[in-house]
Amino acid sequence: MARRFRISTLVSLLLIAVMVLSACSFGGGDTETKNSQVLNLAEIQEPPKLDSAKTTDVVSSMILGNVMEGLYRLDKDSKPVLGMAAKEPEVSADQLTWTFTVRDAKWSDGKPVTAHDFEFAWKRALNPETASEYAYILYPIKGAESYNTGKGSVDDVGVRALDDKTLQVVLERPIPYFKDLLCFSTYLPQRQDIVEKYGDKYSLEVDTMVYNGPFIFTDWKHNQSFQVKKNPSYWDKDTVKLEEVNWQIVKDNTTLVNLYNTGKLDFTKLTSEFIDAFKDDPNTFAIYDGSSWYLEMNQTKDFFKNRKIRQAIQLAIDRDTFVKGILKNGSIPAGGLVPPFIKASGVDENKKYRDLVKLEPEFDPAKAKQLWQEGLKELGLTKAPTIELLGDDTTGAKANLQFIKEQLRVNLGADVQITSVPFKERLERGKTQRFDLLVSGWSPDYNDAMTFLDLFTTDNAFNRGKYSNPEYDQLIRKSKENADFKERFQDLKKAEEVLIDDAAIVPLYFRTEMAVKKPFIKDWYWSAIGPEYTLKWTYVETGK
Amino acid sequence: MSEKNMKSLTPEMFEFVGMNESAGEEMARERVGFWKDAVRRFRTNWGAMIGLFIILIIGFFAFAGPLMNGYDYESQNIAIQNMEPFEDHYFGTDSFGRDLWQRTWNGAQVSLQIAFLAALFDLLIGVTVGSVSGYFGGRVDMVLQRIVEILYSIPNLIIIILMLLIFEPGIIPIALALSITGWVPMARVVRAQILKLKSQEYVLAARTLGAGHRHILTRHLIPNVMGPIIIAVTFAIPSAIFFEAFLSFIGLGIRPPLASLGSLVFDGSKFLQIYPYQLFYPATVLCLIMLAFNLLGDGLRDALDPRMRK
């Protein structure tokens, strides 16, 4: 016993020494210029599934977005621009029947891209035997859901190649964001002959798939690195400037930053502990990850059924300070639920939803305190109960919880207890309403406000605070079937205003990640939805 | 001696003092008992004195430190986040702008509370089980020792983690979780000592005079095992502090915003490259406490149990 602890003290003394020595700051030789069109990037994991019908993860989707091309692809403003579609489709008056013309393009093995490739790929993803987790993204297509769930037949699925170059798609109901959906990996074409030839081995190696995108996948050392090169048979090859892009697979954040500092990588994301180290670096930039974060209040409990109590909590959190002082990653303080990059789809393709629906975060401790007291009086309480604040147990999440607790303590005098649990446990407790306040986030499935606003209808499984308002439910239900996109937009706007006015949730922030890249990388476009980034237009500014 | 001198001795020169029977028993020097001897040995041990001194200083700051600069451990002030020591923020501020002086001493206080509570629980359970087991022997001993062995064979980290998943983390639950396995070494030490002492003559004498088990245990045996018990407690304290720090480090420790030294070190370690001072102060205090208790324990062992000295 005694001996062991003398060793432990020795170790702690050593640790002090190491600590003092390592306090000397680090810095590395920077290579700020480059003479070739080659990029060295990094991902934190191996792409697990490159089969576009089955893929669900960020890395695979990013690779597919660069080596494949669907009917549309996302441009620098995350707007869909023509890809494999030769021209804008003909759309029927009821917004349900879309007819696309496939452009004269070639696969990397020289065969032409046809409408059949699309029909095959989509029906394959919907086939229950494929067991694609993302099949639901195809559900707007008529008959897709019933086929995928085993109730309908493949012949009733509303997608058909009329000839080699014409693809007809019939939708279940009118949606203003169908073109955005077409940029998703699941909507990419696949070659029937190749898929059938390789069977289980399809897309497991670089030579068991064919490509029709700006790049071709040339090298893949599993769990180590992968590489793409410019595709010489791409239809728009003159636009593509990069010759080669290499990715290393690095799982450790410190290693990533060190590789960046020593010039071995041209880019790295920065986790919270490195943000301060790079705060004066002009090459940092923010990446929207698309998610919206908010507090849910458990409205199965009488205390949170009181609207004034909820409003008091909404007014008592200083979200500006939260974002600038705690998150420090460029996130945007939220006044509403729908994040700023979501489009005003169906109304004005060039505007964002948030441009037209302004909801600023409000912070007013005096009014909050007053509402809190009034709420307590209405409930017949002299003192609020202890409030349990539930959240994740990651370092960042814990810091957020501490900030929220302190805000409620100082501004309302509320006694808040923090419970941090692992991610799965948080979901489980949220689902079964075992919390008072819950920090939740939601990432969008498609580029439309509906993907967020749909969450808080009475019977939605992700409405964990059990907010319920018939007016809100009615507005959402109507918008789902509405072919009048202008009216639909107004209804969605109204729904969000009702949501915030009711203080159903407390919007916290729209999350971004910080990253740093070498200044010679230009026109590198990121998107919060669909493939994470596209390199089609990216180039290296050479020789200065 | 010359003859002349011999002649000069006369009977008048002698005085009769009589016979003093107790004089033979009296000691020439001051009587030095066990404890006095221990104190003397302890005082000559420089390491132990330094350890004691450090513990007193840290103990003083842990309780008086938070009164010194008028902040508290939980109030946030984002405007002064991550500041190196300035004005009366003697240790600077953390990423929430909370005063690190307050948090460090508060953390030291929490760590010490947990450690002393855990040591107290160890003491109560360990001494009871160990002495009963050693004294009564036989079937009682068999059963108790099997329990001890089972507890000893399961890695204590697992038990502690499981305990903390059931309890809500706080000072008392953590102390309890630590002592669930922590009492085992104490019980073993006490049992071994009692086994040795129970066959001594003075126990036999007491039993002959009609003393009950309880009297023999509490009056004759346990006082004679005090030395090893004190040593075991002194080593249990840094062990508990270390374990608590470890639990905080893996996220099972005290609930924020309350901090312990372990959780402060953990928070600080994330900013090691940018704000090293956030790690430096709590880590220094933590290491000093550990070092001091180990020095003190070594010194006490040398003083109370000289035979174990190497």
From TrEMBL, chain A:
Keywords: Peptide transport, Protein transport, Signal, Transport. Transmembrane segments: none annotated. InterPro entries: Peptide/Ni-bd, SBP_5, SBP_5_dom. GO terms for molecular function: peptide transmembrane transporter activity. Residues 1-23 form the signal peptide. Residues 80-461 form the Solute-binding protein family domain. It is found in: Cell envelope. CDD domains: PBP2_OppA. GO terms for biological process: peptide transport. GO terms for cellular component: ATP-binding cassette (ABC) transporter complex; outer membrane-bounded periplasmic space. Pfam families: SBP_bac_5 (PF00496). Belongs to the bacterial solute-binding protein 5 family. This is Peptide ABC transporter substrate-binding protein. It comes from Thermoactinomyces mirandus.
UniProtKB/TrEMBL annotation, chain B:
Gene3D superfamilies: MetI-like. It is a multi-pass membrane protein. GO terms for cellular component: plasma membrane. It comes from the Bacteria. Its main location: membrane. The keyword Isomerase does not apply. This is ABC transporter permease. It comes from Thermoactinomyces mirandus.
